[in-house]
Amino acid sequence: MIRWLCAVLLWLGASAGAQDYISVPDAPLSDDDFYNLVSCAAAPGGPCAKSRVRWAEEKASDLSLSIIDIHQNYPRLLRTPIRRALFQAITEVNGAGAGLHLRRADPDETPDIAIYLVDQKIGSTIRSFPEPELNGNEMPAAMFWIWWNGKNEIQRAVVLFARDARSEEVQSIMLEEVVQSTGLMTDIASSWYTSRSIFAEFSDNTVTRLQPQDIMSLRRHYPPQ
């Protein structure tokens, strides 16, 4: 699936957002291997290649998100499916039983995860976006970017949707981008997981519900209170 993750070092932490996945055999992974892969880019049985990052406990219990900007050229026929997909993603994550609760941000609130519907086509180069780290990247159907501090606590996140994303795929894409904005940033390249995980790199964006190992990973990353 669409995956963006590329570390950029900052003064007190880092940010992430360019394509990253790990290829594994076309067979199920153990829960330990699955979680380590999606949370810290560890190959099966190997060490973490990246730091584990997560929202701080007090923030994770009340994590806000919303669509904060819709470009005037963004197709109107795509706006409603994306809004519906956001509601469904919130419902799905909140039903996972993790120590993580999402909610739509209040109108006068700056959301923790800010979603932009941008005037960019798939494959175009991102230009003039307010967050300079994203400029120069190639635009997929959607992408996320997160920033964290020196304690590996996520501070904020953004999600961008291209103007030519397919309406029948936005529910799956939205769920994936929201989940990965919680710190589970690495995809699994394995045909076995194509219909068995929201983290599948080889996917046709038809997975619209969290699958058992997706839920397990969310619960490990954010243990139930």
Q: Determine the fraction of residues in helical runs and give it as a percent range.
A: 10-25%
**Mean of pLDDT:** 92
Helix-and-strand structural type: alpha/beta
- Compute the CA-based radius of gyration: 16 Å
Assign an overall shape: globular
Roughly how many Å apart are the termini?
Answer: 31 Å
Known CATH architecture: 3-Layer(aba) Sandwich
Stretches where pLDDT is under 50 for at least 5 consecutive residues are: 1-12
Indicate the proportion of strand residues. Answer: 15-25%
Question: Which series of helices and strands comes N to C?
Answer: EEEHHEHEEEEHEH
Q: Please identify the top-level CATH class.
A: Alpha Beta
Number of helical regions: 5
CATH fold category name = Collagenase (Catalytic Domain)
Number of domains: 1
Number of separate strands: 9
What composes the largest sheet?
Answer: 7 strands, mixed
Fill in the keyword field for this structure.
alpha/beta, two-stranded parallel ribbon, Collagenase (Catalytic Domain), 5 helices, globular, about 220 residues, disordered N terminus, 7-stranded mixed sheet, about 20% strand
Topology:
Layout: E1 8-9, E2 13-16, E3 21-23, H1 31-40, H2 57-60, E4 63-70, H3 76-94, E5 102-104, E6 113-117, E7 142-149, E8 154-161, H4 170-180, E9 187-189, H5 212-221
Helix pairs in contact: 1-5, 3-4
